[in-house]
Amino acid sequence: MISQSSDSPVYHDISRLGSVPPPARSSRSQAPDAELLPSMAFPQNTGKPMDESQMRNNCLRLVRFLQQQGIGIQGLAAGAFTCPRDSGPDGVAKFIAEGLLRVDQKITLGLLWQLAAHYKLRRHVDVRSLEREVARLRRVTGQTVAEVGATSGTYFNDVTSQALLQWMRTACTPYGISVDEFSWSLSDGRVLCFLIHAYMPELLPQSSITSPELPSSVDEMARMTGGAEYVKLETLKAKGWTAVYEMGGAIHDDNLAALYKRCVDTNFATIHAAGEALGVPAMLSAEDYLNDGPDELAAILYVALLAEALLRLTSERRAAYVIMEFLRRRLSWRPGYMRASLECFKADMKRLEAASTIQSFWRMRCQRCRYFTVRRAAHLLQAFIRRWVERQRLQKEVHAIVLLQAGARTSGWSSRRRMRR
């Protein structure tokens, strides 16, 4: 949740505004007569009892200062006024101060979120840098604004959150994943995994991102969801099984449900390992999404820290490439470097020529051995054919001689018989 303890970094950033504890407790410090708002030097708690008017005055001072700083807190008082005359800045300030005084959870947490978004989120995220990064990703991947699905307006009435959402969409579009908000779209961990993979594939390879197999037909999807069609098949393929839980459904196949939980645990464990290497604290966990549902505000802060780390690494890599290219060009103009490069080139050419000679000799030897083998086989075949032909001719000649001899004997016997007569 956005409510932070006194040891959290968000609280320390808020306390820099002038040692302001959480709003409901800060009202117990007595405000002096001097104007404190320009320096935000709120007094420390003296331990003396205070009346309700003094606490209300402190809360009112805080809210008016936030209005002067341009922090959008009008949404905390939405629908609270029946008369348009009371809905001005002064009426909004009084309403929020009363909410802080009576420790209204919605107003207190909303004010804390606005403080965190204004003083911490904007410190970690530069909207113009994100817009330039989105344009770069579109050029690299060949996307158009229509393919990314840009939306009009702002997310949470905050330009920074909208820029973060657009950055996530652009980075995840090449992987076929739809990102619509910071809650259910991040619940299975795939979006965060693909964000890190898009910038640091060696840190988080795509093979480590797990997801249960999706159904191929509507009937199969209905069987897995208990016969109820919570979402369309196209939406399920774009968002994954989180789309079913987002619509209030559940996976009725026990094996598939257990596999889905294991995949979510694995994805978040992978995210935490990569985040630790990037210096991003583990603010989200699989248990939060599986048990309590997604925490949208915590997800925005985590994505902001992740964007800061990834864009910083990207800038450092680009700077390293520019420096290396400059050094190469600088060294190439030095005479000693040119002579050394020429010697290296000559040595490489000699090695290449020697390798080509060895390869040519080896190919010639292989061809020669193959030629002798074929010639030997041809000689054997020719000798066999000649022997077979000679044998056939000899057999024919022997057969003809036998026939002639038989004919001669027959004719001689007939002649002798006629002479005797």
TrEMBL record:
Coiled coil (residue ranges): none
Region described as Disordered: spans on this chain: 1-52
Cellular compartments per GO CC: cytoplasm; spindle pole
GO BP terms: establishment of meiotic spindle localization; mitotic cell cycle; spindle organization
Span of domain Calponin-homology (CH): 158-311
UniProt keyword terms in alphabetical order: Calmodulin-binding, Cytoplasm, Repeat
Compartment annotation: Cytoplasm
GO molecular function (one): calmodulin binding
Primary localization class, coarse: cytoplasm
Pfam families registered for this protein in UniProt: CH
Annotated protein name in UniProt: Calponin-homology (CH) domain-containing protein
Species, as recorded: Volvox reticuliferus
